[in-house]
Amino acid sequence: MAISAGSSAEEGEAMSDINVTPLVDVMLVLLIIFIITIRVIIQQVPVELPKATNLPTQTRPENITIAIDKEGAIYWNTQPVANQDALKARLRGIAREEPQPEVHIRGDANVRYQFVGQVLVATQQIGIRKVAFITTPDHFGPGT
């Protein structure tokens, strides 16, 4: 539609055309500002993160499984352990073996993290070199 630049007979009539040029200018300026400032907002130290792999657990007879139930009770394989001191005494026994067996920690999904942390700290204090957490997989393979 054409815009007339003079007086006409219909001077009281409102102009029905929208001028979008200022809107486009404002949007382009905002886009440029966002492009420039996004590098300032996202500040991260450039590090190469390790690749995660989910390997199935290889159960060996010499591996030790420490289970923690939802009340915080500790089990060595399937035998209950009385307290932290008894756990540390058993861990000292396997820490002397060469090669050291792996320790697998199985914590109940509803256990307080404090109990799992105490077991982990005990293995670290005794000097166990291989500790793993056992979890259930998110999926059970194709077709299930």
Account of the protein in words:
Strands 3-2-1-4-5 form a five-stranded mixed beta sheet. It is of the alpha/beta class. The protein has helices at 21-41, 84-95, 113-126, and strands at 64-68, 74-76, 79-81, 103-107, 131-133. It has a domain at 64-133: Nucleotidyltransferase, domain 5 (2-Layer Sandwich). The longest helix has 21 residues, at 21-41. Helix 2 (84-95) packs parallel to helix 3. A hairpin with a 5-residue loop joins strand 1 and strand 2 (74-76).
Tags for this model:
alpha/beta, 144 residues, elongated, Nucleotidyltransferase, domain 5, five-stranded mixed sheet, 5 strands
Topology:
Blueprint: H1 21-41, E1 64-68, E2 74-76, E3 79-81, H2 84-95, E4 103-107, H3 113-126, E5 131-133
Kindly state the percentage of residues in helix.
25-40%
Dominant shape: elongated
Q: Could you name the CATH topology of the domain at 64-133?
A: Nucleotidyltransferase, domain 5
Helix tally equals 3
Number of separate strands? 5
In CATH terms, what is the architecture of the domain at 64-133?
A: 2-Layer Sandwich
CATH class of the domain at 64-133: Alpha Beta
What share of the residues does DSSP label as strand, in percent? 5-15%
Give the radius of gyration. Answer: 33 Å
SSE order, one letter for each helix or strand: HEEEHEHE
Low-confidence stretches: none
Strand order of the largest sheet: 3-2-1-4-5
Task: Compute the separation of the termini in Å.
Answer: 63 Å
- Structural class computed from helices and strand pairing: alpha/beta
Mean pLDDT: 81
Please summarize the sheet with the most strands: 5 strands, mixed
